[in-house]
Amino acid sequence: MTTEHPLTAIVGDITAVEADAIVNAANNELWMGAGVAGAIKAAGGEEIEREAMAQGPIRVGEAVATGAGRLPYRAVIHAAAMGYEGNRMIPPTSESIQAATQAALEVADRLGLESVAFPALGTGVGGFDLAEAAALMVAAARRYLSQPNARVRRIIFVLRNENARQTFQEAIDQDGAVA
User: In whole angstroms, what is the distance from residue 81 CA to residue 100 CA?
Assistant: First the structure.
């Protein structure tokens, strides 16, 4: 592994970060509405949503990959930390955020990707606590990276503002702590 830390937290636009793939904060139906999903669809094109929905619905906690449309990525990985049953939202849970993070990394690994950018899953439309999501996602990322044959070498958490970046950085700095 390089001297660069495998986990980083930045403030930015997930559709403009340097990585092999980006993760969409998806729902189990895989339609792309507001928040991160809406930004990815606006920047990459509606074909991303069409391709995703053709693979759904999936279970909350699962992930699937699609092409990246107009975006310069090898894939968009749709990680469902929350869902819908009819018009009723199934809110994100600790388990679904960890499972969706792990599932997205497993998809990236199968695709042979080395770097993946994540938003803070479940914290936008889903309303999940940011600090708890950060601890859960960082712990899942560490567990993945501890595997001897892990292909993904760099995980970038792309956050909306400095407060969110600092929250993820604090989780990263708690070296080795597992939620």
Answer: 5
DSSP assignments along 24-50, one per residue: EEEETT----SHHHHHHHHHH-HHHHH
Retrieve residue 6's tokens.
Answer: 């495998």
**What is the DSSP secondary structure assignment for residue 103, as one 8-state letter?**
H
Question: Is residue 45 packed enough to be buried (19+ CB in 10 Å), middle (13-18) or exposed (0-12)?
Answer: middle
Token pair belonging to 11: 């403030």
* Beta strands 75-85; 21-27: pairing state: parallel
- What's 74's DSSP letter? S
Distance CA 116, CA 21 (A): 5
Name the amino acid, one letter, at 20.
Answer: D
Q: If you average pLDDT over every residue of the chain, what do you get? A: 95
Mean pLDDT of 78-107: 96
- Ordered by where they begin, the domains of the chain are 7-173 (3.40.220.10)
pTM of the model as a whole: 0.94
Q: Distance of CA 33 to CAs 26, 27, 107, Å?
A: 9, 10, 22
Angle at 114 between CA 112 and CA 120, to 5 degrees: 110
